[in-house]
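User: Can you help me understand a structure? I only have the sequence.
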Amino acid sequence: MDEIYDVLVIGCGLAGLTAAVCLHEAGVRCLVVTKEEDPLESNTRYAQGGIIAWKEDDDPSRLKHDILEAGTRCSNIDAVDELASHGPKLVFDLLIDRFGTQFSRDAHHNLVYTEEAAHSCRRILHYEDRTGEQIQSSLLRYAQNIGLNILSCHTAVDLITNNHHSRDVQEIYRPREVMGAYVLDCRTGKVKRICARKVVLASGGIGNLYQHTTNPVGATGDGISMAYHAGADIINSEYVQFHPTSLYHRDIKRFLISESLRGEGARLVDVRGNHFMQEYSPMGDLAPRDVAARSIFDRMGKDGTEYVLLDLASHYRGKEPIEQRFSRIYSTCLEGGIDITKEPIPVVPAAHYFCGGIKADLAGKTSLEHLYALGEVSCTGVHGANRLASTSLLEALLWGWNCAEEIIRENRGPFNGRRFAHIPEWEVPTVQEEFDPLLIQQDWKAIQLTMWNYVGIIRTRKGLRRAQADLSYYAHRIIQFYQGAQLNRDIIELRHAVTAAGIIAGSALRNPRSRGCHYIR
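Assistant: Let's start by predicting it. Here is the structure, written out as tokens:
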């Protein structure tokens, strides 16, 4: 029998790494797996704007109000209270004081706070426009220094449950629980059985289900799919947030233009140079993301254009030079021939953040025994129907910490390791079919176009029914092929993606009420 870990963490972003580091330092045997070759690669790495942090003239009730208003008053009150009360100080206690994360400071070495849309004050810490990269690199460096066990190039295939996988017939009659995961070693092509007393899913979001996204290529809905197949509760799946401003460029894809530009004065204009956001919201350019994305989408439709413009150069009110405050955006745009210190930036909305996910409590516990969900793959209810800017990193940090504390408390109980002996190795099909990469690409494009056209920024009942029918057809074909295929990362991700897409489309069709990110025309 292979080694049985106390905790298996699937995902290597802020949420998963925070939990794993805290567990490891408490003496809990922990293994982290990531499908990426470089553990730095995650959604966390690409977060630009910042993270909400404690500030002397701010208070939890004020933050709570802003989160609830942005989430259209359908957030989980208990989760919002937890975030507002305990999250901001953790930025100092964990990130700054323990992990050594650096944030931007002024000439007097004071931390610089910025503002973003729908916030009532400047409460967001940042590191230029590379906040996520700074957080991820400092945390990973700390994890490696303490000897945390991280397996890269390992793609999770399925969660192991006692009812479904155990060869002990008595397990059928016991409550369902998670006992580990089957994970593909992408280098060898072998699927490993990794048994664990508890599993933490922190696998990120679903952005690549859409034709246009700000997410990295690994955001394919893996965790949602695995939890669904295992029988976990998944909620609020209709709420997919589209960021109003991603770069519109022929050669540069998946590049976010942070909301913090508008926090520092940038204004949205149409191709004729007219400001238009005041026509759609009294908050103007600082309207919540769902409102801003729909407004841009509507203006593009009326003008017959494929983008609008974000004018920072004419309205910037920050103290640092633009090329320093927004160094990554400046250098990336300059590579594409756009000088943001002199000219406006072409932007278009893109799939950005999944507000739904695996239902999780204040410690990340799910409806399945021994399964936890953290970060974007989870739905704690903090975000309601629309996420407030810069809450996602804070939620990941706090829930990673809470989850670790909960597991440390529970890990002291008795443990029957003999039950894991009945979990079989992965069964390889007798005849394995080779795949044509072109077919994989074609199926991906079909899913992405279906989701963009029918389950996107503005939806209709007719379009959602079409999406559900098309996705059901794709799923039947893909899963039939998957069952006899020689597995690799591409095939596994495609299977996860079509499952997650079906969940989102079905949830959107069942909810007839427009709210936040779910807008029915």
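Now, to help you interpret it: The radius of gyration is 22 Å. The first helix runs from residue 14 to 25. Let me know which part you'd like to focus on.
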